[in-house]
Amino acid sequence: MKKEFRIAHYLIQVAYAREGWEALVKQPQDRIEAVRPAIDRVGGKISSAYFAFGDYDVVLLAELPDNVSAAAIAMAFAGGGEGWPNGISLPHQHCPRGITAPVSIP
């Protein structure tokens, strides 16, 4: 029997401070590739990444093995001024299962 592993997707939204943009303008670099090794080290991978316009400058969707790994990435990113994972993102196929799951709220 084949064992199925499920991995959570985490949404990471990054808003650069003015100093971050100044550094990127002065020395352009691919920040996605700069953070990829940290995500790889915890057993994760970047599913997709985008530069954005609005409240956040970069949006990443990363697959991470568990919340501990997500917390490690969050602390590393926050310490480096990169951003903070905002939560778990579920594929739309999982929503019907969530709706029918036997959960009650007292």
Percent of residues in helices comes to 25-40%
Q: Could you say how many structural domains there are in total?
A: 1
Which residues form runs of ≥5 with pLDDT under 50? none
The fraction of residues assigned to DSSP E strands is: 25-35%
Describe this structure in words.
By secondary structure, the protein is α+β, with helices and mostly antiparallel strands. The protein has one domain: Alpha-Beta Plaits, CATH 3.30.70. Helix content is 37%, strand content 25%. The protein has helices spanning 18-26, 31-41, 67-79, 95-100; strands at residues 8-14, 45-51, 58-64, 84-89. Strands 2-3-1-4 form a four-stranded antiparallel β-sheet, with helices on one face.
Which features does this protein show?
106 residues, alpha+beta, Alpha-Beta Plaits, four-stranded antiparallel sheet, 4 helices, elongated
